[in-house]
Structure prediction request, 207 residues.
Amino acid sequence: MNLDTTLYFITDSSTVPAEQFLPSIEAACKGGATIIQLREKNKSTREYMELAAAVHEITSRYNVPLIIDDRVDVALAIGAEGVHVGQTDMPVATARKLMGPGKIVGATTKTVPQALEAYEQGADYCGVGAIYPTTTKVVTILTSVDTLKEIVKAVPIPVNAIGGLNKDNIDVLAGSGIKGICAVSAIQKSADPEAATRELKAAFLAL
Prediction:
């Protein structure tokens, strides 16, 4: 599978009314999102599976890979294209073994040693951050752009920046060598997710 992490949209269903969530996914696909991660921290396994299946139906129509956050079981159950694991989740090596060679496995890394370990265990890309403080309901530790650059140089797989990024503040990433940016609130909380996705992608490509 051709892995394009240029504009990596991470969902947050807690920030929008339920009836707007799936339409926001489609809007992001129309706006040019190249990869989408479904991240749900508070749903039961069945609820997560049902939502993931509905999201996958949309992303498949646009040929956008769907990544499931943390839950390999959910990813396998609905046939998602991949899974993303953090530092407190299942090890990359285990996720790779369970997902198989044809699927995408991504990892959150904040240091060069973490990135090297993820790569050596079979990760396809690294998400690095947070670059800026975020409003999402996850604990964030800020990562400097200098560290981001060091990680890019250390591993041969795509590196994406994440954390509080929007079209007006990503200029700090110029020259960093990253392959793409991850966005949550900049798209999910936008009144026009399609336009927000398009503008953010254009801003990154113009760096």
